[in-house]
Amino acid sequence: MSQGQLASFRPSFALIRTLIFCLALLPALALAQAGEPVALAVLVDPDGTETIERISTPARAHEFVEVTNGFSAGYTRKVHWFRFTLGASTHDNAPILLVAHPPYLDDLRLFVPDSTRPNGFEVRRAGDHLPFSAREIPYRGFVFALRPDLEQSQTYYMRLETSSTSVLSLTRWTPKDFQDSATLEYGLFGLFYGVIVMIILVNLWPSLWRTEAVFRYYLIYLGTTVLNVLSANGFVGQYLLPKMPLLADSWTSVSTMLVLASAARFYQLVLEVTDKNPALHIFYRFMSWFPLLGIPVALMGYYTEAVRIGMTLVVALTLISLYRSLSLVRSRRAGATFVALACASGLFGSLAGVLTLLGILPGNFWLLHGFQAGTLGTVLAFHLALSARFRTQEQEHRNALERAARAEISAEQAHSARTQQQQFMAMLSHELRTPLAMIQGAAHGLKLLDANAKPEATKRHGRIQRGIDRITDMLNQLLTSDRVDDEGLVAQIEETDLTEACRQVVNGLESRQRVQFNAGFGIRARVDIALFQIVVGNLLDNALKYSPAGSPVALSVVESENAVHVRVDDHGKGVPEELVKNLFLRYIRGSSLGDIPGTGLGLYIVRKIARLHGGEVCLERNAHGGCCFRVTFPRQPVADSPNS
Length: 644
What we know:
Blueprint: H1 3-9, H2 13-32, E1 36-37, E2 40-45, H3 52-55, E3 65-67, E4 71-75, E5 79-86, E6 96-101, E7 107-113, E8 121-126, E9 142-146, E10 154-161, E11 165-173, H4 175-204, H5 213-232, H6 235-240, H7 245-270, H8 278-330, H9 336-357, H10 365-368, H11 370-449, H12 455-484, E12 494-497, H13 498-507, E13 515-519, E14 524-527, H14 529-546, E15 553-559, E16 563-569, H15 577-580, H16 602-612, E17 616-621, E18 627-634
Parallel strand pairs: 13-15
Antiparallel strand pairs: 1-11, 2-3, 2-5, 4-11, 5-10, 6-9, 6-11, 7-8, 7-10, 12-14, 15-16, 16-18, 17-18
Helix pairs in contact: 1-11, 2-4, 2-11, 4-5, 4-11, 5-7, 5-11, 7-8, 8-9, 9-11, 11-12, 12-16, 13-14, 14-16
């Protein structure tokens, strides 16, 4: 993700405050313009066989049950009959408007008293299965224009049959109040959709959705939400498909399932639910796929059954998501507070609508449509959450760049220091080897001139030679250490007879008579022969120095299927326990070695060379108390050179 993308994603908090103000203002304005609720009584018709002639008889009056605060029976295939009474008109010849919600009811029939008809009632039909042009007044809900009796109250009946949730909110209006309310209502819905579309555009602009899955699913969630609320509010039937009511009705079913699926997947990502949380991961994945599988079921005529299960799962999803968001807050994840706010908005806004649709809460019109306010609060809070999360990522990205820059500077400084060290070591080796050779030549000449030297002189000659050998060994170890530490070192790998290579090392030792060499004939592997012989030489040198004088040292080479193992055993005192963990580091030597010469680099060099070949070295204990160093060289080393 580029810094430009992240910078362009930063929200305008002035805009956010304006949107929140509009969100708070929306229900207040709407409630202020609400019409007069109509008191209802309901009779349930389980198999849909009742007729207006039968249920309107005085003998059936006691079967109607009074309804308060709106009616909701949830998702059911039962037919419901309503009875209500409108008082005498207070204005001469002034009509009243009876408005029924929600807009997605399939078949709604109003029975208006009419003494001139044989059955005493005029039937007025409405519902989203009829073309929009068939509505008495062009409005997203269903409006019936009535002229009540001027002298007495009249009893009306209404029949409701729908495959969606059986919810009914019935209000009474004067024409002027209804016109004013409808104008304000459409304006508020325009504001609602404008906010959602603006959030979509804000999230599309930085192109974060191209690289970030959570953004892709956030946009899908917003898109399906818009499609769903357009249909649920009746605008698809009014503006998009006015002549195709059945297709508009199917739009509601399909979009409901799509918004459930996209919301579950987005929630999974934004709540950081992975397979490390197996139970939650399975639940969210199920919630992502179940609604999609429910689409063909709904289109085959079983929407009522499918959505009943889906809405029940939405309640569980909302509660689980809120719990998960609170755990993110406790762990102080970036944007977690806004995620929790979004989930809480979904719980206390959208959940109210869901419980109404399920028939648990009454079908009050504003309670039914409260999910839209909850949806707006949810998407705004999620926008802020994603913004906070990616601002944190931007800061971490900047910090990573700074760390990389510092590391690059440190690497350059280290490379420069190593180059200077290599130059110094080369110069020191050159400057020391010349006088050492002169000293060694002079000492050798003195020894030859004084053939009958006394024992004391002979000892002095020996000490001089041992000093020269000690300095030479130290220089060789330092130069070898410097070589194997060079990052540009490339091992010259080639097929090698390890048996012969080990024999050459043993033959070059002064104490070769103490080495017991045991190896099969012609054991071969691909190694850098010079580095391999340094390993064997260092291990034998250590074993000979730290073992009692005259004690044997065993060198063995053993093959396995994928590697060759070089093993050196001695009869020394062993390695102190406190030294074992640091044994292969630079300049590590025991504190009780007396005057035994050494630089503390031998085992360090052994491990570096072993690892250069993709192998390893380890210390093992011997039964007789000494040490055993075992070096493993794989048959297919990782350091093959291009010319091997």
